Amino acid sequence: MISLHGTVEVGNFSREFTIDVGNEIVGMFGTNGSGKTSVLRTIAGLCPLGRGKLNVNGELVDAPAEHLFVQPELRHIGMVFQDHSLFPFMSAIDNAAFPLQMRGVKRIAARKLAAEMLEQFGVADVGQQMAPTLSGGQSQRVAIVRALIGSPKAVLLDEPLSAIDDESRDGVR
To answer: What's the rounded Cα separation, in Å, for the pair 144 and 127?
Structure first.
């Protein structure tokens, strides 16, 4: 499902990676600065590979030598960032609906599905709140909904439960 053979370069960080992941759940562990987040951002399409090739779901999506780079919204990957990365100028429901709208779904339909998913994750009551007013746990749940809403073929999670309280973790999992 994901095959990365190449160099991940973000700012001054540069490291060679070989990753082959099928239809499975995989965790990456390492010290701070070892490149975990950089690899995830590269797979998601937020940072290009320095060298090598990246295949996602059987499709070549990044190959610098071939001048190939597929935009993030076309990779069918959801990502939950460690810092949630919600758009501060949008409400929770608009943040959750954003990936669908980027793929051409009309705003009303995208917001309807986002409202349903926010309900499933226990944060429907904050749908109209602006992102900066959300608590850490609410923000993280909205970010998880945003990552899952487009039925991605792969989901990348960068410390997805760090702001979720112990009592809520099982439900979010």
So the answer is: 14
Question: Which residue(s) pair with 154 in the sheet?
Answer: 77
Identify the DSSP state of 167.
H
DSSP class of residue 130?
B
Q: Is the pTM of this model over 0.85?
A: no
Q: Are 50 and 34 in contact (CB under 8 A)?
A: no
pLDDT by residue for the chain (173 residues), tens only, comes to 899 999 999 888 899 999 999 988 888 888 888 888 899 999 999 999 999 999 998 899 999 999 999 998 889 899 988 877 899 999 999 999 999 998 899 999 999 999 999 999 999 999 999 999 998 889 989 999 999 998 898 899 887 666 667 776 776 66
The long-range contacts involving 112-121, CB below 8 angstroms and separated by at least 24 positions, are 113/149, 114/145, 114/149, 117/145, 117/148, 117/149, 118/92, 118/93, 118/142, 118/145, 120/145, 121/145, 121/172
